[in-house]
Amino acid sequence: MLRSLFQDWDANPHDVRIRLVLVGFRLAQWVARAKPALRAVLFPYLAVYRVLVFWFLHIELHWTLEVGERLRIYHGYCLVIHPKTRIGKGITLRHCVTLGNKAEGGGTPVLEDGVEVGAHVSIIGPITIGRDSIIGAGTVVTKDVPPDAIVAGNPGKVLHFRSRIGDNSAAL
After folding, report:
1. What is the pLDDT, as a whole number, of residue 165?
2. Catalytic site residues?
3. Position 170 pLDDT exceeds 80
4. How many domains does the chain divide into?
5. Residue 104 CA neighbour count, 13 Å, CB half
C-alpha cells in the first residue's frame, strides 16, 4: 500500500505541495475502494481531502478518477478533471487544465501514456489523446489526437509529429 501512495512522488521533485496533494489523492482512492466497514470509519478523510484539495487548493482530483502512476503536475492551481476521465501513466498536467465533458452524462477524455498537457488547455468530450502527444498551451481539443502528435490552437490542430521532427518539441 505504501508504494501505491507514493507512486507519483519521484515524478514531482519540483513541488512538495503537489507531492502531498498526490499522496492525499492516492490515499483517498484507497479509502474509497476499501471494504465497506473500513470505508465507513475512514469516510471523514474523504470530506477533509475534498475541502483541502478542492476548495482551498483548487485542484479537482476526485478519488474515483482512474490515473496511472507517475502523474506529474506543475502549478496545479485551477486543475479541473471530470471524475470519469481516464489518465494513463507518465502524464504531465500544467495549471488551469480542464478535462471534462460537453454536457451532463456525456463522455469524457482518455489520455494515453506519456501525454504532456500545457497550461490553460481544455480537452472536452469522449475523445482519446494518443500516447506521447503534446498539447500546447491554450489549446482547445474536441477531437481525437493521434499518438506522437504536437497539437496547438483553438480548435486544436496537429502541427507536427514528434517522430518526424526528432522530438524537438520543446518550442511549444
Report:
1. 60
2. 95
3. no
4. 1
5. 0
> For residue 109, what are the CA distances in angstroms to 58, 84, 145, 165?
20, 8, 11, 27
Full 3-state SS string of 78-147? CEEECCCCEECCCCEECCCCEEECCCCCCCCCEECCCCEECCCCEEECCCEECCCCEECCCCEECCCECC
Average pLDDT over residues 119-134: 97
pLDDT band of 2, cuts 50, 70, 90: confident
Q: Domain for residue 161, yes or no?
A: no
CATH of the domain at 54: 2.160.10.10
Its domain, for residue 107, covers 2-155
Q: pLDDT of 18-45, one tens digit each?
A: 999 999 999 999 999 999 999 999 999 9
